[in-house]
Amino acid sequence: xxxxxxxxxxxxxxxxxxxxxxxxxxxxxxxxxxxxxxxxxxxxxxxxxxxxxxxxxxxxxxxxxxxxxxxxxxxxxxxxxxxxxxxxxxxxxxxxxxxxxxxxxxxxxxxxxxxxxxxxxxxxxxxxxxxxxxxxxxxxxxxxxxxxxxxxxxxxxxxxxxxxxxxxxxxxxxxxxxxxxxxxxxxxxxxxxxxxxxxxxxxxxxxxxxxx
Length: 212
What we know:
Blueprint: H1 7-16, E1 19-23, E2 28-30, E3 38-44, E4 47-52, E5 58-64, E6 69-71, E7 83-87, E8 91-97, H2 98-107, H3 109-133, H4 138-153, E9 154-157, E10 160-163, H5 169-176, H6 180-192, E11 196-199, E12 202-206
Antiparallel strand pairs: 1-8, 2-7, 3-6, 3-8, 4-5, 4-7, 9-10, 10-12, 11-12
């Protein structure tokens, strides 16, 4: 399990969740003006949180996997308004309503504290990544991103580490603040130079090229 949520809290959330919901690939879970507010925990699959800029460009904030939490409840989210949540793979989510989360503050106060701590860690992780790439050339940003995702979703395969997240060139561009055309050109260079490989739609990092 790739989870930053404490195991005890994970078990309690599974017990308290009102339902398990299946989502197909690339399905929007919530958007900025969704009326329904929930806390979600990922049972299986992966999701991305992102924002749209005024010129229509998408900025991916983070990718989350099994056991991790996210929310569009204002009092239980560190994000400002304007965030979308969308699945990357077919995904199953534990869903807790706003009302259920509020009731947890009285019955499971320690769990609520741990979940706030988890959200804080997510925000710190995002901020560290952004700081790491802020002033670096785009080519290095791509390697930083792949290193960042490798640490969270990597699977050793001989001399390679498979990143178990399907990334298009547009996804990479949305993460690092570049264009799809630039990313397409530079990933080809990185493959030719032996830093990364792309096998069956997944990027693989060659051991020793981690920059994060």
